[in-house]
Amino acid sequence: MSTATPTLCERPVDTWRGMPAAQQPQWPESRALSAATGDLRRSPPLVIASECDLLRQRLAAVARGEAFLLQGGDCAETFDTVTTATIRTKLTILLQMAVVLTYAASMPVVKVGRIAGQYAKPRSKPTETRSGITLPAYRGDGVNGLPFTALARTPDPRRLVRMYQASAITLNLLRALTTGGYADLHKVHAWNQDFVAASPAGKRYETLAGEIDRALAFMNACGVDPRELHRVEFFTSHEGLVLDYEAALTRVDSWTGLPYATSGHLLWIGERTRDLDGAHVEYFSRIRNPIAVKLGPTVTADTALALIDKLDPAREPGRLTFIIRMGADLVREKLPDLVRRVTDSGALITWVCDPMHANTFAAPSGHKTRRLGAVLDEVRGFFEVHRALGTHPGGIHVELTGDDVTECVGGSTEIAFDDLGSRYESACDPRLNRSQSLDLAFLVAEMLRE
Ligand code: PEP
Ligand code: MN
After folding, report:
1. Residue 122 CA: which ligand 1 atom is closest?
2. What ligand is nearest to the CA atom of residue 139?
3. 204 phi, psi to nearest 5 deg
4. What are phi and psi of 432, to 5 degrees?
5. pTM value?
6. How far apart are CA 195 and CA 363, in angstroms?
7. Distance of alpha carbon 96 from its chain centroid, rounded?
8. Ligand 1 centroid from CA 276, angstroms
9. What is the ipTM of this complex?
10. Nearest Cα residue to atom 4 of ligand 1
């Protein structure tokens, strides 16, 4: 590819430069940054425009109440965990949850991973102090390193290239697993292996898998074997936080002439970077991907309407998703006005519940944690509000892992405060483990059936 092409590609989305951009890394010097972004501009896209368009259509079905979105994965992916086992078990738990939801609700489930690009984190404080030493906060492996040393914590633009490579490796395996037989519905039992099988949620899943097996055997006996049962449609997403990275991977689609972020299918703007006059909202307004915005308890209906005007001026179903993260204690109070005002404006938004980020607290041991009970309660509140208003509770956005970690308390395997130290591996926020994720899926399935 010639070096002239990228300039062309980037021009339509360049308007964010010079605008206030929150939560950007303080790169030590600009030469290394130019070298890294230059590499990225010359690299092939990770996803292509038509895949993003397909996801936009799927999300439009969610907005219309015809499908449900399951979006999940790590709070922060790390370069060290780009391994077969970690990627495969994350996909597996998403597949298991999707089966539970699809079967219970008889509704298509749109599957989107917080994966293959979730390497940059906004932080509440720019620095971290330990034993009197203050260093820059960890901002995700795409920016700096987790170890508490000056060297690791110094932002390094070369990490942007590693982020691209780690995303590409992850996506490659995901594409193979989702289309090459692993995600075949006939494998519904095989996904329920190791520690999760013995958990109460795992046993409940086994019963459901048995019913699906019988349905498949029946269909097979009737001579019906649709292609859809042998593969799954799976999309990637991450927070579009580091604008140097996203801009360098923005490409103009040769068919439509429109710019797309090609780092993932769906990008979202975080709660801390959704300033209406900020660089993130500006950049996102220029790309053609389906996009999402996180909305916390301080958001007003006026702000939500202004975000719609800026990000979805054509009022196109599937273009804009609002990921609501109010907290279990506030969702019933804060969400109704928002949904009512947005609905009255004529916009058809995809509403999704993130029951994780406003339910975080410090355990007595100091570990950042979340109670599964609060997570479930926020989802319940989200459904109650939508049911009362006649709108569609479109989906859930969760932080989870396929591993048997002890980061969130509660669940049918009853993880207690004292257990948190035994396997706490998250580089950032606490994630649901596999059996807690299944607990959540069964609860949501029941609510979808009601
Ligand atoms: C996150 O999704 O990890 C995150 C930081 O969320 P929020 O922007 O909602 O705080
Ligand atoms: Mn998080």
Report:
1. 5
2. 1
3. -60, -40
4. -70, 140
5. 0.96
6. 25
7. 17
8. 17
9. 0.99
10. 270
